[in-house]
Design goal:
Largest sheet of chain A: 7 strands, mixed
Oligomer: homodimer
CATH superfamily of the largest domain in chain A: Type I PLP-dependent aspartate aminotransferase-like (Major domain)
Helix content of chain A: 25-40%
Strand order of the largest sheet of chain A: 2-8-7-6-5-3-4
CATH topology of the largest domain in chain A: Aspartate Aminotransferase, domain 2
Strand content of chain A: 5-15%
Number of helices of chain A: 12
Chain lengths: 406, 406
């Protein structure tokens, strides 16, 4: 009889954003006129950048003409034009990433979920707490044991390795979702050293790298010595160029990452690049050609200008939020190198209770920290993905809420 | 230490089409002028249908405007407009498929590969031999035991269930890739009955359903009684509307498919629809909005007319091939309800040898049957995805080859 995968039984029942949607729907049913401002789910609010729109349209037109039509991509790993542009982009901030180690994908979520497939279920996974839920869910689905590295007030929500603990796989996200913190060169070097010492692999989620403003924060893990021997980096066009609904990302899997074969068996696949090639070759057929052309356009000088202008707008919003929190003397991280601001719930409330209070009394939607892990139980995430007007209004309401409830 | 997934060690080293590419490259290096005609990999040759081009362009333009911009899809399962169009399409040939059982995906390959994730590794999988290699590779990657159901001359390459064998999961493809055969209502009913008797789940790949011409061949497994209790159906826009490079497909997972929980444990997920929702919710973020709009357009009256006209062209090619094979008295299946023609290699040669002969002596590329399984060792696949001129020329060359070698 067909059985559900045993690993699925260990998953928590509901996904964070489903519960949030449920609570919002319920509130709206009873308060249809409430002027809700959404600062919860990390979706962008600025449209797709103009260069990407133009390139996407042009590529669709090409698809309709026999001479320029594109069918299956030979490799399914991405067209050379896009991989070349990505490699150039990396060079721009000093990271050397060969084109044949780049895999174009339909987004960072798919890749950070699927990458677990190539590792043996007996690998012990270290995940920061709090973290993006996909790392936990996909590790559970692939039957791996999880241990947590605490991000908390004592380390200003930038978890560091515990040298006494063994790991085989490590998920890191910097700038971090949800805490908004970005690792310094020194901190990230500590993680790379830890990975090398453990012969472990780091899955490095750099989806928010373009938001980094401070010079002591690396925009790629490949700026750290030895990272090519231990780190897979995942990146995305979502948050900078507005690709959340257009869907494109890329993952770098260095050939230098050696993988051990389990049970002392011999294996024809001996590195992570070959393993991921095999996985993608069997279960993926590449990203839509028009989408790849749209992504390529993001790397043009005009495209880079457009995403910088987008980021500048989100950064102003982040400043509005952090300024308000500072004035209210609420402890927070993030907002400087990240679109996320992670703050301590006022009055010692727990994060779901604060969610309800903020929704009901200020009509502002945020994300309860508990949805990202135990260390988020008393924390709350706001995003800068909104208009300046809405961000200002939301902060006025938060200030009023704090005054009213004093 | 990070180990490669143990299951990957059981994969065969190289993917069929990689070996084919290698042999073609080698041949071309020594014969740069050879007028090669490709009738190998199942890629289409007609461009993306005009309605899809237009809808894709329009949707990209929408993405650039704040008011019509689309970010993350709420569910990631596909927009209602597309699921509605798919449900209507099914109704058109008498199958009732509720919209909330449809999952829009980036293609049949991803889904037929990933669907295995939701089933326990101890499930025994039945796969026809020959078959699309993805079924085998993804079953191996997910640690499942495979048994084969023979498609051979005795059943005219339409494998039937062995009632004495137990199964938990069954991969079927009809019209079949590579054999070109389509199950009759009666044959498919036998498989559904077998699945029900075994409490098994059928993964039914219907990517070529639009090629069916004969009235006794069902275009969906849901036209068979009880299929909603045991069958997942996977479909694609690739071969009819020219989406091989645009990437869109859909998978139907009925809520009526109950899944047992392993080891007598209790599970909150009790059916295949909920399990697949959970898998996709954690590892997938939906299909690009412009691509979904392009797919929607395929179901418009104009779109249906355009795909019918495409299929008609491919069908003429299939007739050219089957006519030639008949004249040459070469045994074959397919070509009537399918773009594929599956024939017996002449002179008792094995399929890779015939591949080399056909490439070197006739400059025609096909696909060696062995790439699809043991029962393809003496068989060869040609596709009708080409121009009429090329198809005619290829058949002239085959005729000459047969005469020359008599």
């Amino acid at each position: 009889m067909a059985k559900i995968n045993r690993t699925f039984l260990d998953l928590k029942q509901s996904y964070l954003f489903i519960e949030i949607s449920k609570r919002i729907s319920e509130f709206k049913k009873n308060n249809p006129e409430a002027p809700i401002i959404r600062m919860g789910i990390g979706d962008v609010t600025l449209p797709l950048v103009p260069v990407a729109v133009e390139a996407g349209e042009k590529a669709f037109a090409e698809m309709g003409v026999k001479e320029t039509f594109k069918g299956y991509e030979d490799s399914g790993k991405g067209y050379d034009f896009l991989k070349k542009a990505i490699a150039e982009y990396y060079k721009g901030f000093g990271a050397n990433v060969p084109e044949d180690e780049i895999f174009v994908s339909d987004g960072a979520k798919s890749d950070s979920g699927n990458i677990s497939d190539i590792f043996n279920p007996d690998c012990v996974v270290t995940i920061t707490d709090p973290a993006y839920p996909v790392y936990v869910d996909s590790s559970i689905m692939s039957g791996k044991k999880i241990q947590y590295a605490d991000s908390n007030e004592s380390n200003r929500f930038a978890a560091m390795p515990d040298m006494s603990q063994k790991s085989d796989l490590i998920y890191l996200c910097s700038p971090n979702n949800p805490t908004g913190t970005a690792y310094t060169f020194e901190q990230l070097k500590a993680w790379v050293d830890y990975a090398i010492a453990n012969n472990a692999v780091i899955i490095y989620d750099a989806a928010y790298e373009a938001f980094i403003t401070e010079a002591d924060k690396p925009r790629s893990i490949y700026l750290i010595e030895n990272a090519r021997k231990c780190a897979i980096e995942i990146c995305s066009f979502s948050k900078t160029a507005g690709f959340t609904g257009t869907r494109c990302g890329y993952t770098v899997v260095p050939k230098e990452i050696a993988l051990e074969s389990p049970d002392g068996l011999s294996s024809t696949i001996t590195d992570a690049n070959a393993a991921w090639s095999r996985r993608q070759g069997s279960k993926f057929n590449g990203v839509s050609y028009p989408v790849q052309r749209a992504a390529e356009a993001v790397f043009s000088p005009k495209g880079q200008e457009q995403i910088r202008s987008n980021i500048a707008i989100y950064r102003v919003n982040a400043e509005i939020i952090t300024k308000t929190l500072s004035e209210l003397k609420i402890d927070f991280t993030g907002g400087v190198n990240s679109p996320y601001i992670w703050f301590k719930c006022p009055w010692g409330t727990d994060s779901w209770d604060f969610f309800d209070i903020l929704l009901k009394e200020a009509n502002v939607v945020g994300t309860p920290g508990e949805g990202f892990g135990q260390n988020g139980k008393d924390r709350f995430r706001l995003t800068s993905f909104n208009t300046k007007e809405n961000t200002e209004e939301a902060m006025r309401r938060l200030q009023k809420l704090m005054t009213d409830r004093k």
